[in-house]
Amino acid sequence: MAGIDEREVLVKKEKNRLKKLFNNIPTSKLKVVDGLIIQAARLRVLLNEMWIDISENGDYELFSQSDKAEPYERERPVARLYNTRDQSYQRIIRQLTDLLPDEKDKEEVKQYTASDLI
To answer: Is the backbone of residue 77 left (phi > 0), alpha (psi -120 to 50) or beta?
Structure first.
């Protein structure tokens, strides 16, 4: 896992990337946008770290309540948390996308693909 300084560098880099993607949002909505972009950047960095953990260690683990109980497979807490944070990230991205001007209000429309946002 990244240290706090390294994580802050990654968050700043992601924040700048998102600001470029959502630079067409009207200035009247920028105060809302800045908070959403910061939160999305933080979530993205955490999701990337969690993805590495899940990739290396899997979604499930053997778990037992005691020495005498048979172990069973259960979802790892990091996998559950990843899914929750991913949903939060997707909601924020949706909010940002909804703040973009309608196509009819823009002179030129930039089409984003899913890979631009991920």
So the answer is: alpha
